[in-house]
Amino acid sequence: MSKRDDQTPILEARDVRKTYRLGRVDVPVLKGASITAAPGEWLAILGASGSGKSTMLHLLGGLDRPDSSRGGNKGGEILYKGQPLRRMGARRLDRYRAADVGFVFQFYHLLPELTVMENVLIGAMVLHGRLGYRKRRDEIRARAEGLLERVGLSERLRHRPVELSGGERQRVAVARALVNDPGVLLADEPTGNLDRASGGEVLESIASMRDEGRRTIVMVTHDATVAARADRVIELRDGLVVQKSALGGVGRAAAV
Amino acid sequence: MYQGLLTRKYLTRKIMPLLSAVAVALCTAMVLVTWSVMGGFLNTLLTSGRAMMGDVKIEVSGVGFPYYNDLIERLEAHPDLVAAAPAVEWFGQIGLPYGRVAQAAVWGVDPERYARVTHYSDALHWRPIDTPTRRDTEGADPRLGPASEYFTGPGVRSWDSVLQRGLSLTAIDERTNEPVPGIALGIRLSGQSRPRPGWYEPTSRFAEDFLPFGGRVTLVVLPSDSQGRMIEPRARIVQVVNEIQSGIAQVDGQTAITRIDLMQDLLGMRGGERVIEPGGFRVDVDPVTGEERFFAPVTVSEPSRVTTVFVRGRDGISLDKIVAATREATEAFIHANSSRPQGGLLRYLTLATWEEINAQFVAAVKKEIGLVLFLFSFISLTAVFLVWSIFWSMVNEKTKDIGILRAIGASRRGVAWLWLRYALSIGVVGSALGLAISYLIVRNINEIHDWMDTALGLSIWDPSIYLFAKIPDEVDPLHAAVVGLGGVLAAVFGAMVPAIRAARMDPVRALRFE
Predict the structure, then answer these.
(1) Is B279 contained in some domain?
(2) Residue B219 pLDDT more than 70?
């Protein structure tokens, strides 16, 4: 067991259900899945395509909401530091996505018109607004440059995404996700679109951004070897958590 | 903040927004050009009266009215009024060379006083000039050469002396060497050497009989007496001393100006003792006594009459104030003179501004402007729909970007503002471009029209219809501001629905959009 397991979860999904409607058919994706992520923990959610792992990540990140139900709690709850996201208003939820969590997606999702530096800075612009950003501009730029240096892209600041390799793009996405120094990094198949070498570099970048175990990482993957880099792995199958594994490789090494 | 960055990037890296900006620019330019030309036309129409008749016209048409010098003194004594000038307005025939006849409004004026009330001196065509006029590309204008080449009569040595002849409306009689009244014809009245409407192109081909160069016309008027009864037609051969090019087609094509004393003589309006012949039979038989009764001619003493007094107000005084001042002076004049001989005519004095005289026409022009602007503004709605469709398609194209922005914390309102701000920028760029285009078109519209006339044979602006030889070429800053703002609002309005659609997008679906 990790020494962090006894701490209050920073992020928790309690009996979460999510159903999508495809045409006239309701397709249940999550059927009562529960997970917890402790502060500083690297949690991997392993699952095959369609298992509901990306949906779980979107729910954890406040991009989507669990099923609603009148007078009950049938859709389950997502809690951040014990506070239900369901009770957050739209503005607070926007701030949650901007400040408390950072997303990394499988397909990088960088804004193609912006340079590498601008892609990283835009997260801070969204969080701070015009005045706040101007007030902290130097500090924010220094942080963005620092992050890009840590992911090995300090020479590519003025390049546009189209001029970068897949691995480089994903490392820009990691830097963007962390520009506001969130407590949680949510990574959706971060290596899924990369070759093994590039994927390894991205995982190294993510690992390096744990900042001495201060940051929680929730990573979704279908690849057991990638999941093995996490402290803990849980497996989702058909919308349910079917297995809670022991520590992954790096985490186990750290724990040992 | 991020909206500004993305707006800048989208604007500089995408073709589609430029199409929106071009659509806004074209619609803005179309409306402003129309408004400037039509509005300028109305403005010229409203102000042009001042060029030839001052601000207010006081008249008793036909028979005229006496004691006008007293009226002029009272008018000129008023602090809001600058000058007043008497005139006799009549219809007449102008007998031109080769037996041609033109109908004309003949104005008899006191040239010095008339020039103080109107821009008469500016309207005289034959004057010294240093450079060729706009359309005289070959420098064929006789005024560029020595006047002596064209004039052989006495008293004319230079173009300046030709101008003086026009200003004084006086010629020198070749036989007696005495000054005699001359006449200034509207420049299009003689019909000579005017190949295109509004295009005055004097050529030496007509020099021999070209009217200002020593030519004469026969002025024929049909006078009436102070009772309004027609008298025998009267004719006088007068020398043409200059020509009038006021820019007002009505004046340039149908008006002749001569001295007031000549017109008073011809029309019997000159004061003094006059014998009035009885009408009908001179001898009558008394039905009771059977005796013959004779009706002898009666000698009456009459004051001089004019039909019109033109009034000019002080610069900077509103037309309403000028009218009020004129009315005040006129009422005092009527009160003081109505009991004098022929003072009864003063009861018929009317007072009208140029706009009132042309009220029907002005109203029609105003309606026409309103209609044209409405139609063009309606057509400009296409810009709204164009922006709408372009933005709809751009929001589609940028669906993933919207998902990304929502994922990193952008609010729905922030996303909506991104697109509205983008539309605002396009509106500003498009409107600015449209204003610049329309300014260039309007300022050079006469040159463009000339080019179309020369190169394509297209003459759209016919002064005989639009009254003025020159197409209005001023852009009203207020109109430009209104149209520019309209262009910006049209762009923002067009982007409204796409912006709302972008804001309401489900971020998860947006991120999965392919």
Answers:
(1) no
(2) yes
